[in-house]
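Q: Predict the assembly, please.
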Amino acid sequence: MPSSQLKPVFSFKADQASRIQDMFNAVAPRYDFLNRLLSVGFDKYWRTIAVDELEPLANRLFLDLATGTADIALELALRDQSHVIGIDFSGKMLELGKNKVNTNNMQSSVKLFQGAAENLPIKSNSFDGAISAFGARNFSDINHAITEVHRVLKPKGKIVILEFSFPKNSFLQWLYCLYFEKVLPVIGRCVSGHKNAYSYLPDSVGKFPNGKAFACILKESGFESVEFKELTFGITTIYTGFKNA
Ligand SMILES: C[S@@+](CC[C@H](N)C(=O)[O-])C[C@H]1O[C@@H](n2cnc3c(N)ncnc32)[C@H](O)[C@@H]1O
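A: Predicted assembly structure:
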């Protein structure tokens, strides 16, 4: 099971990983507040739908990858009496997550550890399900991270990935880009005090291989019965798949 030590991400992407890690450490104190504000509360709804995907597996052991401040980990544990291990490489995000776990008195169900998605400090075939909300587009080696999730899932284990995407409708796309590129970075900068974090967000969404392209990555990593569905006009997408038996 996990050690609390951060294992190194692959050296060729180490710079990128450490920039992202520093950024999340810097925005951590304002992260939850900004999430609610900038998504006008939709982030909670999207996470709830993503957790619904794991509901049939209640009472099991789950991985919440890129757990951040542990919203998904807590919802899973509270709703389904499941046990959850949350992994994230930002110590500051985890600190806030641990405070929430303690406040909810969920220390026996939710354990949080520092670690990198590309090199999970976990033994193979451990989890019944794995979920990651808004984490995947940040991974410096997405293919490797997904292969790692496949490795740590038990046979028949389910993966659920929630990530931002682009609406198909051209008017909504225009509105979305206007908001993402002009409004969100300004509010994000003022509230978080971080120069780039909320300009990085639209950049990282733009670079993320969404829809069929990400479904392909899941299949190439060994997942079967891969599906995806768009939420809220395609602003976010939920991807699911199963490790073969
Ligand atoms: C946008 S936040 C999402 C947090 C949480 N899942 C949520 O729903 O609010 C992205 C998180 O991914 C983490 N992260 C990014 N790249 C990572 C990596 N390679 N390994 C582990 N954690 C990573 C960041 O530290 C951050 O906490």
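Residues 3 and 121 are 6 Å apart (CA to CA). DSSP finds eight helices and seven strands in the chain.
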